[in-house]
Design brief:
α1 runs antiparallel to α2 and α2 packs antiparallel against α3. By secondary structure, the chain is of the alpha/beta class. It contains six helices and eleven strands. The strands form three sheets. The chain has a five-stranded mixed β-sheet with strand order 2-3-4-8-10, with helices on both faces. Strands 7-6-5-9 form a four-stranded mixed β-sheet. The mean pLDDT is 83.
Length: 295
């Protein structure tokens, strides 16, 4: 093919990329329509994970387009103009150019792979939170209030909780850790996680960070609860691991259960700590950090 044909193909590819990007931008900016009422709803289970998942999925087509077209354009440039050089400049530009193209392909593919892995993590997190919320649903008929994706960010509080349950037997904060099953050394135990009171031990190794993070959130949440309501209440922290068999070998501040056991873990506290007025006051404060779902 001659130079003019190469140039025409290059310009066509550039125009196609620009048109695709413009169409993608137009779809994102015009898809929202004003609703008849300014809704502000409570977050559903996994709402924040679902938002992150939607943003990521919206950007994936553009990332894929860039990952394919950028190396192609660079390769076309090298094919068009490098042959016009001679001698040492030709060798230097050819080697450096194709090395840069290979590096671009690698980094584009690596970045796209990481985004796809993040998408899978967000999807699992969302499904896990939904599964836990379904198990907690019967509490609504027993005088309990459920709040999902409670995000409290202030001067002294920095809390992101998957679920908060407020009821006669107190306040329970619930975090959800959803992981894919990974075959360990013993294939028959790849569905088990062990909790020794301080650490989670997965088939791929120990995990102390999750328990430490929940303990920190518990302290921060109790402080926020005291400041906003005046109630000196110690929330009951709970960690759920959907789909995993939990082997308890020690006790700690955190209770770890399978998602099928979460209802029993919340309702097993038979003491009455909160009056209906206290439940209502705490619920009003929590609503301020959960009622932000708009259309």
């Amino acid at each position: 093919m001659n130079t003019s044909l190469h140039t025409g193909l290059f310009c066509f590819g550039l125009l196609l990329a620009a048109a695709s990007a413009a169409l993608f931008h137009w779809q994102r900016t015009t898809r929202h329509r004003r609703p008849p009422v300014e809704f502000k709803l409570l977050r559903g289970p996994g709402e924040l994970s679902l938002r992150s998942l939607r943003r990521l999925e919206a950007s994936l087509p553009l990332l894929l387009l860039a990952a394919v077209l950028l190396p192609l354009f660079l390769g076309m440039v090298l094919c068009l103009w490098v042959p016009l050089l001679e001698g040492l400049p030709y060798a230097i530009v050819a080697v450096l150019g194709w090395a840069a193209n290979l590096a671009l392909i690698y980094f584009a593919g690596h970045h796209l792979y990481r985004r796809l892995a993040t998408r899978r993590t967000l999807e699992l997190r969302y499904l896990g939170e939904r599964a836990v919320a379904e198990e907690l649903a019967p509490l609504l008929g027993q005088g309990f209030r459920l709040f999902h994706d409670v995000a409290i960010h202030g001067v002294e509080s920095n809390v992101d909780l998957d679920h908060v349950v407020v009821g006669p037997n107190g306040v329970t904060i619930i975090e959800c850790a959803t992981h894919q099953r990974s075959t360990g050394k013993d294939a028959h135990r790849d569905h088990e996680v062990t909790f020794d009171g301080k650490n989670l031990v997965w088939p791929w190794g120990p995990d102390r960070d999750t328990i430490t993070a929940i303990e920190g959130e518990m302290v921060s949440f109790n402080k926020w609860l005291l400041q906003t309501t005046g109630y000196n209440i110690h929330a009951n922290p709970l960690l759920t691991v959907p789909g995993w068999w939990v082997d308890i070998t020690g006790r700690g501040l955190i209770t770890v259960v399978n998602h099928k056991q979460v209802l029993t873990a919340v309702s097993s506290r038979q003491e009455t700590f909160l009056t209906p007025d206290q439940i209502e006051k705490i619920s009003r404060e929590l609503e301020q950090h959960c009622r932000d779902v708009e259309f």
